[in-house]
Specification:
Elements: E1 3-7, E2 10-13, E3 18-25, E4 30-36, E5 43-48, E6 54-56, E7 64-69, E8 74-79, E9 88-95, E10 111-112, E11 116-121
Parallel strand pairs: 2-11
Antiparallel strand pairs: 1-3, 3-8, 4-5, 4-9, 5-6, 7-8, 9-10, 9-11
Length: about 120
């Protein structure tokens, strides 16, 4: 069983930065950050693979960075130059098997955190 706990959300002004953390208990293979704004579907923001490579959704490329501290079993999301369009509940997700490539759907991940709210004001 894997448990995920996010932290680091908050309220910032447009152009500001936040760093989200996701502490994982248990072994994970593939991990990702998703977000869900009110009235919208949950969407992948960034995912990280076992070889350390990562992919990003187009709207956050160049502004967000996903990283992982294996010693602490913690996933991070550094978010810079935030805009009001980034406001959402952010979720950490994990999977324990299979290929990490192309895991952009919520159904690809078996384990989820409770989420952390990010609010960006203009």
């Amino acid at each position: 069983q894997v448990q995920l706990q996010e932290s680091g959300g908050g309220s910032v002004q447009s152009g500001g930065s936040l760093k989200l953390s996701c502490a994982a208990s248990g072994d994970t293979r593939c991990m990702a950050w998703f977000r869900q704004a009110p009235g919208k579907e949950r969407e992948v923001v960034a995912d990280m693979r076992m070889d350390g490579s990562s992919t990003y959704t187009d709207s956050v490329k160049g502004r967000f960075t996903i990283s992982q501290d294996n010693a602490k079993n913690t996933l991070y999301l550094q978010m810079n130059r935030l805009t009001p369009e980034d406001s959402a509940m952010y979720y950490c997700a994990a999977a324990r098997d299979g290929s990490c490539a192309g895991r952009t759907q919520t159904s690809s991940y078996a384990y989820w955190g409770q989420g952390t709210q990010v609010t960006v004001s203009s």
